[in-house]
Amino acid sequence: MNEYTIPQVAATIDHAVLKPNQTEDDVRTHAELCIQYGVASMCVRPCDIRLAAGLLQDSGILVSSVLSFPHGHDSSATKVFQAREAIESGTEEIDMVMNIGAFLSGNHAYVLDDIAGVVALAHAHGVRVKVIQESCFLTLEQVGKACEIAWEAEADFVKTSTGFGPSSATPEIIEKMVQTVGGKMGIKASGGIRTWEHAVGYLRQGATRLGIGDTKAVLEGKSSTGDY
Asked: Could you tell me the fold of the domain covering 66-219?
């Protein structure tokens, strides 16, 4: 017996509309799909927040948006500015990329402050923050450390990937995240989730959100041919 229903899985999905060549008409089409399936949120580029907020108004679908995407190397002040603008535009959740280079340099205090600045502003407006590690660049030990930093910065979720790096979520990464902050933070598996089995597998492990680009294929039991 399958312990997950389509609506249950859909309710964990942040449907990604993030490709550089996607148009305003694409945003409209994807908003209709999000409403049809009842996903958790539609995750959009900053320039699309206002459009998405209007399309999803009164639907129960959240608007989430990326910040300092996909590399995370904007200055901390710039990230706070971006967060303020996103909130004013109507985002309800922010998926920010941590400063990967600073983390790999061992400058953990900078990474902590970088995240905490965005979190403080977001929480003052009732907006949740997910911290994208781009875990494919990290060892499992580093994944755990990045989770600890995000927790200390009072972020709401840790997230594996942008979907634009050389690799995406893996069971090993999700296992490490669950071991480190499971029960304390949300855990988002993102990128490379192209089948129902992938999606359910991460939920079984303890992921609480899924970043998916081809929600329709995944929920209908087909194999996505997309590259997110």
From this structure: TIM Barrel (3.20.20)
